[in-house]
Specification:
Length: about 250
């Protein structure tokens, strides 16, 4: 079989600009410094603003830049690794858990979550909202979905919403015997509520980590965590336990 010679493809203009901008960030700007506005940057580098935006978006995705409401585009600080995967494979809320419960309620699950739990999507369940911070900065937000059948000991007089109910659901969940868990990671876009929690703009790149917890031969709970993709990378521990690390400034 003969071979096909591929024609060389020119480097996209925005990609070359990204490299030039990256060099400028290293030599001309300090961490936290606000970049000039798009008009000034486009004029400096002699490119269209659409090309400039593509380059800036790539640098944000790579963690070199941060866009913040009311501030503008700033140079991102050095990254710091924060392990996400729990090597002990414990229930959410167990001692040493870095997540903080902020609210809880009863509501129907999204269709994808209902399928993972093998339940009717019209049936309500317990939802626990949690956040995670590093150096006081929000780096992830999570919704934990727990079917009512999984926490039968939940007190009937527990508040219908709020942190107290969240702690109560987590406490009851830990009474179950955890048999294992698995995780899936996808790249997504921040929804408005998640973006607000993470101090990002809606539509910003995020990593969505879905964790299933198994007990009694079934999926007992599902957690959907949203991480800032501009400061996140995947690392691997051993051959059977992939780990996610968040790099937050």
């Amino acid at each position: 079989m003969g071979s096909t010679q591929l024609e060389p493809v020119p480097e996209p203009k925005y990609w070359h600009l990204k490299t030039v901008l990256s060099d400028a960030l290293d030599s001309e700007f300090a961490v936290g410094e606000i970049l000039p506005n798009e008009r000034e940057l486009a004029a400096r580098f002699g490119v269209a603003r659409a090309t400039l935006r593509q380059a800036l978006e790539q640098l944000e995705l790579e963690g070199r830049l941060q866009r913040r409401r009311g501030v503008g585009t700033t140079v991102a600080p050095p990254r710091m690794g924060v392990a996400v995967t729990d090597p002990e494979h414990s229930w959410p809320g167990a001692p040493g858990d870095a997540w903080q419960p902020v609210d809880a309620a009863e509501q129907t699950p999204p269709g994808a979550v209902a399928r993972l739990l093998d339940m009717d999507p019209a049936t309500s369940l317990h939802t626990v909202r949690r956040t995670r911070k590093t150096r006081g900065q929000p780096v992830a937000t999570e919704v934990l979905y727990v079917p009512a059948a999984g926490v039968p000991g939940l007190a009937a007089d527990a508040p219908p919403t709020g942190p107290v109910r969240a702690h109560a659901v987590l406490r009851e969940l830990q009474r179950l015997r955890l048999e294992g868990q698995d995780q899936a990671v996808e790249l997504g876009s921040a929804r408005a509520d998640d973006a607000k929690q993470l101090d990002r703009l809606p539509g910003s790149p995020v990593l969505v980590v879905t964790t299933r917890y198994f007990s009694g031969g079934r999926t007992a709970a599902v957690a959907v965590a949203t991480y800032r993709a501009d400061t996140c990378r995947l690392t691997f521990g051993d051959a059977t336990a992939p780990a996610v690390q968040l790099l937050a400034g």
